[in-house]
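ok so heres the complex, two chains, lmk if somethin looks off
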Amino acid sequence: MSPARTGRLRRSVWLPNLATFVLLAVVIGLAYLVQSLFPPRFDRDFLLAAGLIMSLVPAALWIAFFYRMDANEPEPKGMIVRVFLLGALLASGLGLPLISLFNLPDWLYAAPWVTLLGAVLVLGFTQEFLKYAAVRFSVYRLPEFSERTDGIIYAVAAGLGYATVLNVEFMLDSGGGNLGLAAARIVLTALAQASFAGVTGYFLGRQRFEARPLWWMPLGLTISALLNGLFFYLWGTLKRSSGGMIGGNLNPWIGLGLAAALAALTAFCLAWLIQRDQRRFAPEEV
Amino acid sequence: MAAVWQSFRDQLKKAVDLSTAAVVLTALTALALGLVLRAVVDARVTVVARAGVRAEFPAGWLVERGLAGEEMIFSAVNPLNPVARYTVLLLPSGEGIHFNDLVFSRNYARGQQLDSYVVLDQSEVIFEGKPAFRVRYAYVRTFGSAALPEVIEGMDYYFLTLPRALVISLEAPGDRFESQLSRFKTFVASVRYAEGGGK
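and the predicted structre for the whole thing:
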């Protein structure tokens, strides 16, 4: 690719991406504003509507963030939406029921190493496998899956579908007491689920167009499950005070910050991989 | 034999994408290991003894011991997931005491202290071959305007031991209560009251 086109590609992506982050901050700010101006509402219909809006807006912004990077041959939007919906369906139809069978709250917090290992084995592998399945058994063999980057884009869509179901469920369970913190959590969950799915998508994309060994896809799934489990661990466990007792110096922002850093780092790596492939496999300009 | 195996592999390759099969196998293996991990955690306990009562709490739980002279002997929660609370009490007892005497006074006291306290079910049962009295109850816990009120469900097991009666209780939010029962019954089975024997 010519240096001029590379420069244009970078410029064309940076401004909208900056706008994405500003809009996400606006979503969180609006939630805090609503929380401070209006008394809390606890009825289920309101929580469902608020949960859907608060989940779909960040999902749309994150999907636009990754979609814009796929500049060479953008995917059909209808196909992206279908994979998104499939991710959501698999989450509500299989993911949540399967994970609930493990009764995680009863044993997952027995010790920090149990939390980490259990989160990787049960949460990580279940969630990442279903996001993988949403791509592998839908668009993977279709002509629309036409370049390596498409693996990431479609997997991100499946991950955001999965995250939307998790976020709506969280809103319904949370009782609606703290909209601002809920909005921050929703934005972060969406980024994390999308990014970890994107890692599997990267492996899927290369598997589709290159001869890869048998261990290639299991390795991709394992890496994304590890990231997913580590994210859960950082978010949930490190927020405790050093004494490890509840009611001490609880600081949810420490865990939230570390988890956000992991998700953001993964997203940054994915963005770099997409841009690298876009430059490497770009059609020549006439 | 080698030819048959080769032919089988070729047929399998045509029928199933081996890479996909490997991914499915990896995920299933991870979930199986998750089940093993759960079994290992469930088997870990911490033995605590006080005032003649010995109990096996799930490992990692925070156990609070009552002061001398208090009815409460132990109260325990999982500090990392404080959903369920186990409590062990020793109540005044004697030769002529019946279950109803203990249960009535305790229900009455709770009715005075807790919001919307209601007894859902109470009956004599046989627990692991020993006569016991089981009370299932519920009440409402409020959080001001910060969140919706929460229904708490509870279960007491009364054992007419001497010189004092043993009461073992579970409390958990209503929507999580059923999932706590199996582990609670294991806990109840682990409790031993040595002073005077009985359970």
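quick notes: The CA atoms of residues 31 and 37 of chain B lie 10 Å apart. thats all i got rn
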